[in-house]
Amino acid sequence: MAKSLRGATTTNLQNTEAGYVAPARLRDNLQAVVVDFIALGNLGKQAHWNLVGPNFRDLHLNIDEVVEIAREGADTFAERMRALHATPDGRLETVVEQTSLPTFPAGEITTTEAVELMVKAIEATTGRMREVHDAVDADDASTADLLHEFLIKLEQQTWFIGSELRSADK
C-alpha cells in the first residue's frame, strides 16, 4: 500500500531533499554559468543604451536579442540549480567578483566598439560554458543539454553581431 503524504506535517517535509542533489562541483559550475549570464545581460543593456553610429538601429535591436537570451539563460540555470537543491547567488557583489566577462566602458560607444565588446562578452560566456561542459555532463547529462541549447543561441549571436565588421573573403 502506498504511503500518503496527506497526513505528513510541515516539519516532516521542511528539510527533505527529494531526488537528485547536485554535488558541489555541479553546483559551482552552474553558479559560474549563472553569474556570466547575469553579467552578459547587464553588459548588453549598457551597450544597448549607449550605442551611437552607423547601423545603430539594427545593432541596438540585435543587442537586445542577446540580452533576452542572457536573461533567459540566467533564469534557466538558476532554476535548474534550485531543482537540484542548490542555491544560486545572483547578488551584484557576487556577479562582479565571479564573472569571467571583460569590463565594459562607461558612456557612449560607437557601433564598431560595441560589436567588438559584445563579441568578446558573448565569447567569454560561451567559453565558460564550454569550460564547465564536460564536468557538468559527467555530473548531470540533462543539465549539459541546457548548456548545448544556450551555446547554440549565443554562438549564433556572435556570428550575427561579429559579421558587422567582417569583409567578404575573395
Structure description:
The termini are far apart. Helix 5 runs antiparallel to helix 6 (141-162). 69% of the residues lie in helices and 2% in strands. It is mainly alpha-helical. The model is unreliable at 7-11 (pLDDT under 50). A two-stranded parallel sheet has the order 1-2. It contains six helices and two strands; from the N terminus they run ααβααβαα.
The biggest beta sheet is recorded as: 2 strands, parallel
Rg from Cα? 19 Å
The best one-word shape is: elongated
Structural class: mainly alpha
Number of E strands: 2
What's the overall average pLDDT, rounded?
Answer: 91
Low-confidence stretches are 7-11
Strand content: under 5%
Helix content: 55-70%
N-to-C series of helices and strands = HHEHHEHH
For this structure, the quaternary state is single chain
Between the first and last Cα atoms, what is the distance in angstroms? Answer: 74 Å
**If helices are DSSP runs of H or I spanning 4 or more residues, what is the number of helices?**
6
Strand order of the largest sheet: 1-2
Quick structural overview:
This is DNA starvation/stationary phase protection protein. With 170 residues, the chain is mostly helical.
Structure characteristics:
single chain; two-stranded parallel sheet; 6 helices; mainly alpha
